[in-house]
Amino acid sequence: MSIAIDKVNTDIGLREVAELADRIWHECFVGIISTGQINYMVEKFQSYEAMKKQTEEQGYYYLAVREDGELCGYIGVRPEEGDRFFLSKLYLRNDKRGMGIGSAMLGRVFDEARACGKKSVYLTVNKHNDRAVAVYKKTGFELTDETVTDIGNGYVMDDYIFEYKL
Ligand SMILES: CC(C)(COP(=O)(O)OP(=O)(O)OC[C@H]1O[C@@H](n2cnc3c(N)ncnc32)[C@H](O)[C@@H]1OP(=O)(O)O)[C@@H](O)C(=O)NCCC(=O)NCCS
Fold first, then answer.
1. Whose CA is nearest to atom 4 of ligand 1?
2. Residue 165 backbone dihedrals phi, psi, to 5 degrees
3. Among 28, 82, 87, 92, which has the minimal tally of Cβ within 10 Å of its Cβ?
């Protein structure tokens, strides 16, 4: 098994990530949020157009995760002003979970943050996303706060905030 994690630098690469995001989100959030909310959030945050705007105007960048050349996951991050690095997205196809790829992805996030001179990585995670919460705790993230964010259309994100000190 050979894992490669590379920055997405092209429109084609971003479109591939959008396709994968659509597939993963419609699987991993079933039972956590409604199908209507999944559709809404994919369009608002993970469509090609949305990610293009995030990367061009909002300081985000994406990393593509490939196993033996096949795209199977992605990471979205944003270095912030001050000491913190925001881990916005960490998604792996379900058939690739539980094999250590998630740990490799988080290791890469920490490397990216260190390379930017940051002192911590923080993220938000749905309170009912038990597996992701378990992974973050096992990795050494600490629960620092909770937040409810109105994302429009009658939907909210009900999240924990976790932070990892580098
Ligand atoms: C989050 C995600 C990327 C993690 O990837 P993964 O392949 O499942 O993670 P790994 O198998 O590499 O496990 C990472 C660590 O967590 C541990 N872990 C995994 N599942 C666990 C569980 N249920 N309970 C406790 N620890 C767990 C592993 O042992 C490993 O720790 P180690 O490196 O010390 O052995 C993946 O599960 C995923 O894409 N989930 C769906 C999308 C999602 O919810 N993303 C997060 C949104 S905020």
1. 102
2. -85, 125
3. 82
Give me the CATH number covering residue 93: 3.40.630.30
Counting atoms of ligand 1 from 1, which one is nearest the CA of 97? Answer: 7
CB of 135 closer than 6 A to ligand 1?
yes
Total structural domains within the chain = 1
Tell me the per-residue pLDDT of 70-86, one tens digit each, with 9 for 90 and over. 999 999 999 999 999 99
Candidate from 22, 135, 158 with most ligand 1 atoms within 8 A of CB, to mutate: 135
Q: In what order do the strands lie in the sheet with 84-92?
A: 3-7, 61-67, 70-79, 84-92, 120-126, 155-165, 142-152
Each residue's pLDDT tens digit, 130-147: 999 999 999 999 999 999
Q: What range defines the domain where residue 67 resides?
A: 3-165
